[in-house]
Amino acid sequence: MTTNDHSDPMMNLSACTLPTVERPTRLAEFDQFFAEFVRATHRPDPARLELTLTADADAEPVGRDLAARESACCSFFTFTFQSTLAGTVMRIEAPTAYVEVLDALAARAQTAVAGAGR
Question: Do the beta carbons of residue 101 and residue 12 sit within 8 Å?
Answer without folding.
Answer: no
